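Q: Structure tokens for this one, please.
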Amino acid sequence: MDTQPFEERIQEIDAYIELLEALNRQSQTGPPEIGGSVITAQQQKMLFASVYLQLYNLVEATATWCVTAVAKATADGNSWSPGQLDTTIRREWVRTSARTHVILNQDNRFESAWAFCELLLQNQPVVEWEIEKGGGGNWDVAAIEAISERIGCTLNITPSVATAVKRHFRDDKNALAFVKDLRNKLAHGAISFEQSGENVTVTDLKELKQRTVDYLRQVVQSFKQYVNDGCYLDATLRPVGGA
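A: Here is the predicted structure, written as tokens:
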């Protein structure tokens, strides 16, 4: 599982927060400027608000990368049959292949069932497929824990990181729940960028970013270990030393 895209996305957020820190330092001696143009208080708030969008982008991207890595591993080299997969993953493969999660009319339901039966009768190896992850626009700690449990991936989150990410950050919400809430309000026009950037400091944003990144990094490592240990396979087929 390639973790480089995850780390690159974090670097982007860090670079943006460095910009905010530079503007904050300038504001100690007067209105901050970029290229000779003064940055107004309104503009600063709008810049602060963009951090929420970047963090949520990282959260949802991480969930997608992790789930995709599992499905990709099962189809790698077309080496595995459905019967060789771990029960939890096989259930997900059936859900996708038989389209049980899609509302179909009578004819399409029959065609889907027929195609799935043919797939089984021909004893085809697992080919490229996607795990239905859902959660679009609603990814937070609870959603990540739910998809991990559904797939059978144990999240190895240290107590300190788990406590930090679930501790209230603002508005009685933990870090990821707060990021999700602000992102959705911005996306649906329920709040302006200026409003979402009010009553927050660069220090607050750095803390929010750190809680989010620390948690997501351990989620990524948990899924990476899951894939490396072959936990998507039946226990009898996993590499020696795998879970």
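A few notes: The longest strand covers residues 168-170. Residues 6 and 187 are 23 Å apart (CA to CA).
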